[in-house]
Specification:
alpha/beta, N-(1-d-carboxylethyl)-l-norvaline Dehydrogenase, domain 2, seven-stranded mixed β-sheet, two-stranded antiparallel ribbon, 48% helix, binds 6-phosphogluconic acid, 6PGDH_NADP-bd, phosphogluconate dehydrogenase (decarboxylating) activity, 6-PGluconate_DH-like_C_sf, NAD(P)-bd_dom_sf
Length: 304
């Protein structure tokens, strides 16, 4: 089938390639002239035969919202838009309503797999009407990993369910990564285990904690055994925050995911105002020693 694909960055570029390899025609649009197949969004739409299916794969937030709004102006009744980005699920109902008023269908699709998806396939979780899902199934089949459909694809529910599923998936991702990371630090700190990379590598087979994330940690340690080339600074693009917010909304205890999110926030601080307050209070009530700030952070002297 034919597909319009908006956004040919790290994800969209590889997805275009995988869909083409499966024998489908893709007209991709990106602002980068080196990778685009069309001069503009309007040009991309003009190159597609109606009824059209357009996949949006641009950064979540305003860019996705604007792109979908523009598509609403360019597309016509009977067309279908799929948002494959990491959008917040609350945007989906609004998009579906705005497009639906013009007779344009809408699906939200959580896509997992990162830069490895080209070869391994992408895990897909979709929200929307069954008829729309059925229509786009050749594209979903091209993108998902080989093997049984139900092991790499889910029609999770109504509009919003795909992005909700991806949000929870990413919350789990935060927690799993944090657990491996804390284990790594403890192994390193204790010095009891003499070869940390080899020990973690051995966990890849037979153990209870084997996983693809563990494989990726092994891969990182192969090129940088103590991860010395990196700073312990971790950004987040929203999914973990939204997961914690939903956990609060539903009164679901989510201590692991919350702690993993807060660990990322802490990673961005050179010094902690909260811990300065704890040190100050401990000094106030117990006269316990504090470390003064000194000329540069962390190089201060101990005072009682
Ligand atoms: O499943 C995936 O392929 C990843 O989760 C992917 O979607 C992306 O790498 C995250 O969005 C990063 O999220 P953070 O920036 O929040 O870590």
């Amino acid at each position: 089938m034919q597909l319009g694909l908006v956004g040919l960055g790290k994800m969209g570029f590889n997805m275009r390639e995988r869909i083409r390899r499966a024998g489908h025609e893709v007209v991709g649009y990106d602002r980068n002239p080196d990778v685009t197949d069309a001069d503009s969004l309007a040009d991309m739409v003009a190159k597609l035969e109606a009824p059209r299916v357009v996949w949006v794969m641009v950064p979540a937030g305003d860019i996705t919202r604007q792109t979908i709004a523009e598509l609403g102006e360019l597309l016509a009744e009977g067309d279908l838009v799929i948002d494959g980005g990491n959008s917040r699920f609350t945007d989906d109902t609004k998009n579906a309503e705005a497009l639906g008023a013009k007779g344009i269908g809408y699906l939200d699709c959580g896509v997992s797999g990162g830069v490895w998806g080209l070869e391994n396939g992408y895990g897909l979780m979709v929200g929307g009407d069954a008829a729309h899902v059925e229509r786009a199934m050749p594209i979903f089949d091209a993108l998902r990993p080989e093997g049984p459909r139900e092991e790499g694809f889910a029609h999770a529910g109504k509009v919003g369910a795909g992005h909700f599923a991806k949000m929870v998936h990413n919350g789990i991702e935060y927690g799993l990564m944090q657990a491996y990371a804390e284990g790594f630090e403890l192994l390193e700190a204790s010095k009891v285990v003499e070869n940390v990379p080899a020990t973690i590598k051995a966990w890849q087979r037979g153990t209870v904690v084997r996983s693809w994330l563990l494989d990726l940690l092994v891969r990182a340690l192969e090129s940088d055994p103590e991860l010395d080339d990196l700073r312990g600074h971790v950004e987040d693009s929203g999914e973990g925050r939204w997961t914690v917010e939903e956990a609060i909304n539903h009164a679901v205890p989510a201590p692991v995911i919350s702690a993993a999110l807060f660990a990322r926030f802490a990673s961005r601080q050179d010094d902690s105002p909260a811990m300065r307050a704890v040190a100050a209070l401990r000094n106030q009530f117990g006269g316990h020693a504090v470390v003064s700030a000194g000329p540069s952070s962390g190089s201060g002297t101990t005072q009682s």
